[in-house]
Structure formats: C-alpha cells, structure tokens
Automatic annotation (TrEMBL):
Span of domain HTH luxR-type: 146-213
Native source species: Streptomyces mimosae
GO molecular function: DNA binding
Ranges where the Response regulatory domain occurs: 3-121
Modified residues (4-aspartylphosphate): D54
Protein name in the entry: Response regulator
Domain of life of the organism encoding this protein: Bacteria
Keyword rRNA processing: no
One of the GO biological process terms: regulation of DNA-templated transcription
InterPro entries, A to Z: CheY-like_superfamily (IPR011006), NreC/VraR/RcsB-like_REC (IPR058245), Sig_transdc_resp-reg_C-effctor (IPR016032), Sig_transdc_resp-reg_receiver (IPR001789), Tscrpt_reg_LuxR_C (IPR000792), WalR-like (IPR039420)
Signal peptide range: none
Amino acid sequence: MIRVLLADDQALVRAGFRALLDAQPDIEVVAEAADGQQALAQVAELRPDLVMMDIRMPVLDGLAATRRITENPELASVRVVMLTTFELDDYVFEAIRAGASGFLVKDTEPEELLRATRAVVAGDALLSPGVTRRLIAEFAARSKTPEQALPLTGLTDREREVLALVGLGLSNNEIARRLVLSPLTAKTHVSRTMVKLGARDRAQLVVAAYESGLVRPGWLG
C-alpha cells in the first residue's frame, strides 16, 4: 500500500486528489495539510511514502518544507513530488535541487497522476518519460556551464555512461538497449551510481549529470 500525504492550501485541490488516489486499491491518503508547517509535523508522525506538496503555501512554503524533509536522514524513505499550476514554474528547479523527486501540474490527467505516484515510490523514474524530458530540457536550457565541475570520483567508466544517459532522460530499459545490457544490469548500475553519489533518486542523478559537466545544455536532441 502506497501511503500519501497531500499538502495544499486549497481544500478543493486536496479533495480532488484524495478522491482519485483513495479509489485505487494500492494507494491510501493518510493525511492532509493546509501549509508546509502542518505537512512537516504530519510527515514526522506518519512517515508516508510520498508527499504531494504544493509550492506556494502559507506559514511555510512547499520548497522550504521539502528541503527540511530531504535533509532529515530519519525521513530518507519519504519522497516528495511538487504540485504546481504551471509546468515551467521557476521554483520547480529549486525543488529538484532540494531533493524533490519530481513535479506534477495540478491539472494533470488522472492516469498521469497515478503513474507518477507509483513510479516515484518505486524509484523507477522521475515521472513519466514525457514529463521527465520536458523537465530536463528546461533544466538544461536554464543551466549554465559549471565554473568547476562537481567531482565524480568513485564512479566506474560504465557508471559515468549510465549517469549521462539518466541525465538525458532515458529509462532503465532505454539505457539497457543503448548500452546492450540486460534491464536488470542497467538498473543495478543506476542503483550503484545513486549510492556512490548519495542521490535519493533519479531526479538528483539528473542534477548531478548537469552540475558535474558530464551532460551539458543543448545535448538533448
């Protein structure tokens, strides 16, 4: 059972998401919060698998709340997906750097919401491939070449290859085909790379790929 906490200052938004999520046999909404401070208290108490966090909320905004969750080692198992009104909200990119696993536009299709929920909790992908690539493309367009590339010491040559492909938005199966590997081997390489870089999920691997200079803006075809 995937346990979800909804954090949004609009009751109607929370009600709509709850109705959709609770209707699924494998998803349960365990709590709702109207601001970031409430969300933090409930996360500490309930330890949900996933927090759907609005960016703009009173008392404590979603970005600050996300950072506090992802910086707390006791909450390492909690994933955060940001909710935003606009696909290319500036705060989205800060949220990814703060440790959020991805983002959803509030008017996303129900099927997309459910796929995203399951994918993020499984650690399989940032979100759906389409949303992932749009996010990466915009992140790349806004990124500047790092003045000093982040070190990737400890990664094997194969793991660097895999990191670059994750940075380009490829799924495990796509990486396997590109490198002529089995999907399980590709997944193992991704997992080892995450461990070595201390990344919570694929979203942070994408950031690492760009900020290390391994992948540069404009490489998306």
